[in-house]
Amino acid sequence: MSQDMSEENLPERHGSEGHEVEPHADPFADPGLPPHEVRRTDIDERAARRAERQVALLFTVSMIATIAFIASYVAFDIDKIVFIWPFGHVSILNFALGITLGVALFCIGAGAVHWARTLMSDVEVADERHPIEASDEVRAKVIADFKQGADESAFGRRKLLRTTLIGSMALVPLSGVVLLRDLGPLPEKKLEHTGWDKATPASPIKLVSMNTDEPLKAEDIQVGSLVFAKPQGLAESAENFQEAIATDAVMLVRIAPQDIKDRASGKLGFDGILAYSKICTHVGCPISLYEQQTHHVLCPCHQSTFDLSDGARVIFGPAGHPLPQLAIKTDTDGNLIATGDFNAPVGPSYWERA
Amino acid sequence: MSAASSAASGGAQPSSSRAKPANKAEAAADWADGRLGIYSLAKSNLRKIFPDHWSFMLGEICLYTFIIIILTGVYLTLFFKPSMGEVVYHGSYAPLNGIRMSEAYASTLDISFDVRGGLLIRQIHHWAAIVFVAAMLVHMMRVFFTGAFRKPREINWMFGALLLILGMFDGFMGYSLPDDLLSGTGIRFMEGAVLAVPLVGTYLQMFLFGGPFPGTDIVPRLFTVHVLLIPGIMLGLLVAHLILVFYHKHTQFAGPGRTEKNVVGMPLMPVYMAKAGGFFFLVFGVISVVSAIATVNPIWAYGPYRPDQVSTDAQPDWYMGFSEGLIRLMPGWEIRAWGHTLNLGVFIPLMIFPLVLVAIWVYPFVEAWVTGDKREHHIADRPRNAPVRTSFGTAWISLYLVLLIAGGNDLFATHFHLSINAITWTMRIGFFVVPVVTFLVTKRICMGLQRRDRDKVLHGRESGIIKRLPHGEFIEVHEPLTQAQLYKLTAHDQHRPAELPAAVDENGVARKVSLTQKLRAKLSRGYFGDEGQIPKPSAEEYREITSGHGHH
User: Fold this and answer.
1) Which among A42, A84, B73, B444 could bridge A38 via Cys, Cβ 3.0 to 4.6 Å?
2) Which residues, in sequence order, are bridge partners of residue B132?
3) Residues A292 and A202 in one domain
4) Which residue in chain A has the smallest CA separation from B206?
5) What's the CA dihedral at A180, A182, A188, A193 to 10 degrees?
């Protein structure tokens, strides 16, 4: 390939690389570094002294600001809120510490830069570059050294040594991998079940209000409202509350029976009351926005939209499947109860999900 | 006996032939040199030349914000408790009094309301992280658009790209630590993304969280990764990045006296010590003032995390916005077969992360392959002189912006009273269309600028002075450019497109042209053909025009 599509195609380097070009021969030749232009502070000692005073002033302001920082730390109460235009009501301690620290730091920087720009030499100097590549002699020497070292080690000649070394080096990291096993349990069926799993027709679990912890009755659920519920007995103080609520959270809606498009989902409900998982099937955000008229719910994280009147079908957004539904009925006291788990695994989908 | 002889030889040969130091400082330096070899190290570095250009300080902002993050981060670890153990809050922040929360969240509240200056340091830490990632991105764009990633700097480019990705992830982990309602939602998103990995997703999830979501392990684990593992790797990469910058010497823009063989500028000591050292304080000072007046991540307003609660307008930090956009734009594709689910709707966006890194990594090598250029490059390109590369860069940025907008589609919907469905669909189409349009527009602009440079070289600068000729004609006087300006505008390399070899060789035998050769020729034509660049003026053209005044 290289004999045909070679570097002959590369453009020639311009200007003073290699040989110098006569300026008249090439109108675009490199004229070389322009002469240094002096600054006022280079020739006027008074200007230089003024610059010196400016730099010193900046450093002095920095010192004062640091003292002010310490004074603020001591003087201001941490919970004092004051009004400072245009920032509004702010913590005076945070404000004072930040401003004084900022000024102290900024003035050091401004002083140093001003010093460099006015008083340090600004004569441009050229440094030679050297090719990154080593010379051929160095290359030959290193390769010869390496070969000698390799020969002396007999790594290539004694195959048994080489093979067993590679084998042992390849195996030894396995110990580290094995040690990671106890990072967590195996998934098994953990993602398929929720706290509602314990409910059976013989021992149903009541749905209690997320806010009041009281059992919900059918008449508590009105058309047009979205009610959040959890299984009875799941206390906020329980040790596993966070894990449990991450799967067990339920939202209840009531839809006039003639508006329920999906018959099957209607049968899992009670008198138009439908219980769906609150956890979005996309990546697991809790769904919280309900549109009364259309019975659509929207996940505020990524805007997946589900139609609760149609089996919680996905009608927009990135979710891939409907919200799981919890079959509910009422007990003899009129409390809403569940007699089993959701009809599908709760939350985002995963490889083993059927 | 041997001791006696060595003592005798020691007496005869002084241990060092060095002259007596002039003062205490020299003596101390001599002492250190005898043990550390500092003179050899300083010989080429103390007065090392750095070129001056405003865009060369973008990398400095990255370095300085990194240092600020380390300093403030160490302070925060003194007070932060990376634990998900539940406590009931009884601190100074009254609205949350009596609420159950994790120790992580409670200790973040303590840092904000009970440790004097704690809130300031937390805000400096967060603001510096925001600036850090932004500066890395802009610094990377500068390197890309000026072609500073070319040989010999490809590996440094790869280090930099890795630093950007690591910085983004470390930022994400950092703001996930307080275990507030917003960041917990972000971790939930991460869990969903991990679950979408085929075959091993559930295992990864269990091993990451130590059980079902959320468990009690994720915050302490993220903490260790956030404060130790990732910063450690980043520190190593950063040192390597800087060593290579020193070793390669900085690129410079073309100009009189500046060639591929030299570097023109001012010495490290004193000018850049003062300027760069001072710049650290400027950056730190500005971030401190910003942290004093602008609240960032007010975790007390969000409340503690609960998996069944969420706030609307949930937004990640800006640098994660594009991934948010990807996940929001992606249709919910799920393939279900043989008792398994392949969640492409989440898995494809997840895979874009490594693919982006690979694309960034290989670009220098792809361009070098297309040009066939194996030489070192130390003169930075002007973006206009590499139109295709520049257009790739702007197309990339436009894609990024489309995803940022898509990531905030709910905010755009509520603030501009638009339909969220319409925004999402517009961005879905924009994802494919906007980069193409941006590419074409950028290329036209670059070509136009190249034409203008060519005109300027051949006809001089438009002076704005109108002259009346003796016969009444009005002309605008064009001032010829100086030699320096002429050099600057014509100094860039122009590649000729690679030609395919003749269809038959010298013996008349049909030559086999491989597919890669054809691809390379095609790409090369795209980069350097008539559509890819305007030929820069030749010396002959210039002489013909400038000597032929009488004819015009």
Assistant:
1) A42
2) none
3) yes
4) A184
5) -120
